[in-house]
Amino acid sequence: MSRATQSELLEQRIAENAASQEIDLATWIFERVLVQRGGQVLELCCGTGGQTLPLLDRVGDDGRVVALDCSAAALNTLASKAGAGRKSLACVEGRLEDFPASLRQAGVQQDGFDLIFCAYGLYYSPDAQRTLREARSKLKTDGRIVVVGPFGPNNKPLFDLVRASGVTIAEPVVFSSESFMLQTVLPWAARNFESTAVHTMVNPVRWATPERVVNYWQNTTFYDSAKRADFERLVRSHFAEHPAFVNEKWVMLAEMSHE
Fold first, then answer.
1. 162-203: per-residue pLDDT in tens?
2. How far apart are CA 53 and CA 65, in angstroms?
3. How high is the pLDDT of residue 5?
4. Structure pTM?
5. Residue 23 and residue 102: Cα distance in Å, rounded?
6. Which residues are CB-neighbours of 202 under 8 A, at least 6 positions away?
7. What residues pair up with 91 in beta bridges, in sequence order?
8. φ/ψ (deg, to 5) at 239
9. Which segments of the chain does DSSP mark as H helices, in order?
10. What is the rounded CA–CA span in Å between residue 16 and residue 187?
11. Are 142 and 193 in contact (CB under 8 A)?
């Protein structure tokens, strides 16, 4: 968990994926999720702003994005990216398990949201269904919840290489990467909303050098420094036979509504 929330590690992971991914994740998301100008949006687990900045652009000066994250450093990075004094952005430090209390303490909007959005972070909640219930209570009658996350054989090429180097990937990491969207998010959505629109994609990430692969891994939640030499040896062996290492990001977007 500590590695998951360190903003410098997050920035490195995002940079390695963004530089080498075939499909831009934020573009893919917001081609499918309508964000109205003037809308009121709550983003949970905003991180350093990969989706927050597109949300701000879409709501415009008449709207507002309340961006919540447990990392003060990540929020500072986001605020810097967004520009000082941007009135449509409110940054709130808080955790998923008690985010309503964090909103109250920060004195920002607590309900009446048009959209509650969370990408690659809901699985960090100790009780994701409670977090979803609390999110639902903060919506307008016609509001929506959108959750984006990995599923299925996500990261399989990289996981296979990591395991071959002798690393045991922790079960919570595997569950969040492969099963969380399927076993937690979709069943809850079906029980609590009239409609759930599901979009999926497979996004190849092509790393052109061994150093790029190692850099990504060393910034993940499943890095093991004791196995680094074995991992680097396997990566070099791969590049001796192939021009690139291709990882696969399996992405699911679930949009819940009463329409």
1. 999 999 999 999 999 999 999 999 999 999 999 999 999 999
2. 9
3. 52
4. 0.92
5. 34
6. 248, 249, 250, 251
7. 67
8. -70, -15
9. 2-5, 7-20, 25-30, 52-59, 72-82, 99-106, 128-137, 156-164, 171-178, 180, 186-192, 210-218, 228-241
10. 32
11. no
